[in-house]
Design a protein that fits this description.
- The complex is a heterodimer.
- By secondary structure, chain A is an alpha+beta fold.
- Chain A is built from 9 helices and 9 strands.
- Chain A has a single domain, classed as 3-Layer(aba) Sandwich (Peroxisomal Thiolase, Chain A, domain 1), CATH 3.40.47.
- Chain A is about 30% helix and about 20% strand.
- In chain A, strands 1, 2, 3, 4, 5, 6, 7, 8 and 9 form a 9-stranded mixed β-sheet that branches.
- Chain A is globular and about 60 Å long.
- By secondary structure, chain B is of the alpha/beta class.
- Chain B contains 11 helices and 15 strands.
- Helices cover about 30% and strands about 20% of the residues of chain B.
- Chain B has one domain: 3-Layer(aba) Sandwich (Peroxisomal Thiolase, Chain A, domain 1).
- In chain B, a hairpin with a 3-residue loop joins strand 14 and strand 15.
- Chains A and B meet through helix 4, helix 5, helix 6, strand 4 and helix 7 of A and helix 4, helix 5, strand 5, helix 6 and helix 7 of B.
- Strand 4 of chain A pairs antiparallel with strand 5 of chain B.
Chain lengths: ~270, ~400
């Protein structure tokens, strides 16, 4: 297959104690202290009103924190939201309601239980009326998100805002799907070079049997191995963030068994 | 894209409240008959019709995939074992190679019905049973994962979950995966089972009708929830056969569960699909409406259809036959559009008696014969997520 070239225009990141892409760049380059996540960290954004931010889930707030750092895109541009587990806290609230005789679910909870709740809230907050999709692929959600964004960039020839997010489930669900730490990550990818281009990637499909590229830094390893599948973006983000790193192809697993191979390309 | 589409839809299969397979669905489309029943759902605290698939408990679930056993995957199994779909898919896999065949499933709740059962049975404050694995049930990807393993294929696999537009969008993904060279064939699924979450959730929004739903009827008062699985095999081919000739996606950007009155987002999706297909409105022979039978949704969709097509193209909703199958609706109704095209049949709106003045676009029926070359199918979901696809032959 012909490689797909993706021009990166913007990057975003959010995890406990690492708020924003510049903060991640600093942490990855310093690579001196062990990563000790702040236990009471919660994501925040200025997209939602304070009231809405309180009413809506941690997961939605996390996704919107990332989308806000990417900046608002136009209606010609598309969005791909990717999350393995989506609205876990809202799911738990609904399951608790289903344990009662009347099974009364709060309307706001139900309409924000869908996997695309964060994407919907983002489009409402920004009046974005362009295409938007939300996908999932269990532990291989990062690969799937990059793949879907690449399809949209290459075939529809449009700029795409790619937003990854997953946050730990509340107990007792967390025991059967431990996600470790909340992690959000984002990229704006474009089919064409522009004044905003900060780098480029070349993306191809590799068959089964490839191993995932491991992270290189302490922070990268901590986030990669914490249980949150969004941590799989770290090896790619390390290569973009640390100029001194050797530029080798990065393999990211796809669900099903094959692999995405991503190389830095000349922008 | 009309003349340069790189893929064709070569097989399909479905199960819904109408039954399993092509013959049951064709008979109902011809007769405008409904499979909705008043059977209800276990433990549901209110009474309403549902679109239930009968007999799922009696299916023999493959032993080596027993961990995937839940209602959504049983629906999938029922569909794939009908109308020769499995044999056709296995032929294609043998020809293309397991690495070159992917799966894209559209679903809103996947196996959450199983999680509901397990969670409701837990003693207060108890831990989840350690053998319950979210991967096989609650993960949104539980059905896609099942399909990949059932067919032992290793091509890219992921799930689109944008509420009720999910599996219409999965067809877009399949066409793109083939066009970009990631796959030579894709098994597309649209699957959602009845579950307490969906039934009680729509009830909370006061959208569940106490009668079998009546899309576009003056007396419509809400939707009927149904369950379904539909599978569509998409193959790399530029030859004869049905193709996805255009698609359009948009966001309302207004409200999580209510469209704007003028259906602006739906209109934008339909116009984008026509533009991609290189077709004018008059070239569309039939519009398969999303048509959920809620008062606001049908009126907004008809306003959008009126704005794009000016009332010149017959439009109908099929949800009176099997209910709103949520994330399965897009693929199920696309499969029924393929069936209608093969049979040259314009299906009427099932359950519609008196056309509402706000829904003048709706074709009440009876179903009538007419050649169908280009058909549009709409699917809209929570979050203001809209899609329109055009199928052509």
């Amino acid at each position: 297959m012909t490689p797909i070239i993706l021009h990166i225009e913007k990057l975003a990141f959010a995890a406990p104690g690492v708020e924003g892409w510049p903060a991640l760049v600093n942490r990855l380059n310093a690579n001196t202290e062990p990563y000790a996540p702040a236990p009471d960290w919660s994501p925040h954004n200025t997209v939602l009103s304070p009231r809405n931010a309180r009413r809506l889930s941690t997961e939605i707030n996390l996704a919107l924190m990332v989308a806000e750092e990417l900046g608002a895109l136009s209606d010609e541009d598309g969005y791909v939201f990717a999350s393995s587990t989506g609205e876990g806290a809202t799911l738990k609230g609904i399951l608790d309601a289903l344990r009662t005789e009347q099974m009364l679910i709060q309307p706001i909870r139900f309409q924000n239980a869908v996997h695309n709740a964060a994407a919907g809230q983002w489009s409402i907050a920004n009046r974005h009326q362009g295409p938007s999709t939300t996908i999932a692929a269990y532990d291989e959600t990062v690969g799937a998100g990059l793949l879907k964004a690449a399809l949209q960039v290459a075939i529809e020839r449009r700029r795409v805002g790619l937003v990854f997010f997953d946050a730990p489930l509340p107990p007792p669900l967390d025991a059967v799907r431990p996600l470790g730490l909340p992690i959000g990550a984002g990229m704006v990818l474009s089919p064409m070079r522009s004044a905003q281009t900060i780098g480029a990637l070349s993306l191809t499909l590799a068959g089964p049997g490839e191993t995932m590229t491991p992270p290189r830094t302490g922070v990268g390893k901590a986030l990669f191995t914490c249980g949150n599948p969004i941590g799989q973006i770290l090896p790619l983000f390390e290569q973009i963030a640390i100029p001194a790193l050797a530029q080798a192809p990065i393999s990211i697993a796809l669900n099903g068994g094959s692999t995405l191979r991503i190389e830095r390309a000349a922008p | 894209m009309t003349d340069k589409a790189k893929s064709r839809m070569t097989a399909y299969a479905m199960t819904s409240a109408l039954g399993t397979g092509r013959a049951a669905h064709l008979a109902a489309l011809r007769a405008c008959s409904s499979g909705l029943t008043r059977r209800g759902f276990p433990d549901l605290p209110f009474d309403c019709p549902v679109g239930e698939v009968a007999g799922l408990d009696h299916l023999a679930f493959p032993a080596h995939l027993a961990e995937f056993d839940n209602r959504a995957n049983r629906l999938t199994l029922a569909a794939l074992q009908s109308d020769g779909f499995e044999a056709r898919a296995r032929d294609v896999i043998a020809r293309c190679g397991a690495e070159r065949v992917g799966t894209v499933v559209g679903t809103s709740t996947a196996g959450v019905e199983k999680l509901e059962q397990v969670y409701r049975a837990l003693p207060e404050g108890a831990a989840m049973p350690p053998d319950f694995d979210m991967r096989y049930h609650n993960s949104h990807h539980a059905v896609g994962d099942f399909l990949s393993q059932y067919f032992a294929i290793t091509g890219p696999s992921y799930t689109v979950s944008t509420a009720c537009s999910s599996s219409a969008k999965a067809l877009i993904d399949a066409a793109q995966l083939i066009e970009a060279g990631f796959c030579d064939a894709v098994i597309v699924g649209g699957v959602d089972s009845l579950c307490l979450t969906s039934l009680n959730g729509f009830e909370a929004l006061q959208l569940v009708s106490r009668q079998p739903c009546r899309p576009c009827d003056a007396a419509r008062d809400g939707l009927t929830i149904g369950e379904a699985a539909a599978l569509i095999l998409v193959e790399r081919s530029e030859g004869a056969g049905a193709r996805l000739s255009g698609y359009g996606e948009s966001s309302d950007g207004e409200h999580m569960s209510t469209p704007p009155k003028d259906g602006a987002g739906a209109r934008a999706a339909m116009l984008a699909a026509l533009k991609m297909a290189g077709l004018g409105p008059a070239q569309i022979d039939y519009i398969n409406m999303h048509g959920t039978a809620t008062p606001l949704n049908d009126a907004a969709e008809c306003a959008a259809i009126q704005a794009v097509f000016g009332g010149a193209v017959p439009a109908s909703s099929l949800k009176g036959a099997f209910g709103h199958t949520l994330g399965a609706a897009g693929a199920l109704e696309a499969a029924l559009c393929l069936l209608a095209m093969e049979e040259n049949l314009v299906p009427g709106t099932i359950g519609l008696k008196t056309v509402d003045a706000d829904c003048a676009c709706a074709f009440a029926g009876p179903s009538r014969p007419a050649p169908l070359r280009h058909v549009m199918s709409n699917a809209f979901g929570f979050g203001g997520n809209n899609s329109a696809i055009i199928l052509s032959q």
